[in-house]
Amino acid sequence: MEELENATEDVLRKKEIQSRQHKALKIACLYACLNHPTELVVNAEDMQQAIDTVEFISQDFETFLRYKPKSDDAYDRLWDFFLNNLGKGFKRTDLIYKHFNNFGISRDKFKDRFDDYIDSIREMALEKGYFLEVTSINRNSGTKYRLIKLEKQELGEETRTLEDLI
After folding, report:
1. pLDDT tens track of the chain, all 166 residues?
2. What is the rounded (10 degree) CA torsion for 156, 60, 45, 2?
3. For 159, which DSSP code?
4. What distance in Å separates the CA atoms of residue 1 and residue 17, rounded to the nearest whole number?
5. Of 64, 49, 54, whose CA–CA distance to 13 is shortest?
6. Contact 104, 81 (CB under 8 A)
7. For residue 51, which of 18, 23, 19, 13 has the smallest C-alpha distance?
């Protein structure tokens, strides 16, 4: 593990590698409890089983670090549309009947799944420091959608970063 850690430049990956021995010890104790509950000893077989488990799980961490979400689908095009029209409001009907072709899907499909698309855009907006504002027009005769940029805020004192969590 020391050689692997020294060969790694990525700080997050280094922390994960450093924590493997602690994970293996904890998991070995669990395996000992499961494998032989009356024997109060962690044997070599329990430890090897734990090491194998940690190595297997660590592969998922590598996948997590390399993950790049698919782009240029209808959700991304809808996001780009709102981003390019930042601060500008659009009625639901205008989005469905006038702008649907900007998103690379049929009008009927967009209309049927409109709420799903908007929910996804809301989540994307929050992740990227924006907010999708949804307002009613003329006492619920329609709905208007507008993307706005959120002001940056400092993290609270008790908030842990991804680096700390790993």
Report:
1. 889 889 988 888 899 999 999 999 999 999 999 999 999 999 999 999 999 999 999 988 888 877 766 667 888 899 999 999 999 999 999 999 999 888 888 999 999 999 999 999 999 999 999 999 999 887 767 899 999 999 876 767 788 877 777 7
2. -70
3. P
4. 7
5. 64
6. no
7. 23
For the whole prediction, is pTM greater than 0.90? no
- Cα separation, 47 vs 50, whole angstroms: 5
Look up residue 82 and give its two tokens: 């709102």
Residues contacting residue 131 through CB under 8 Å, at least 6 positions apart: 125, 147, 148, 150
Phi, psi for 136 (deg, rounded to 5): -85, 145
Token pair of 77 as six digits: 């095009």
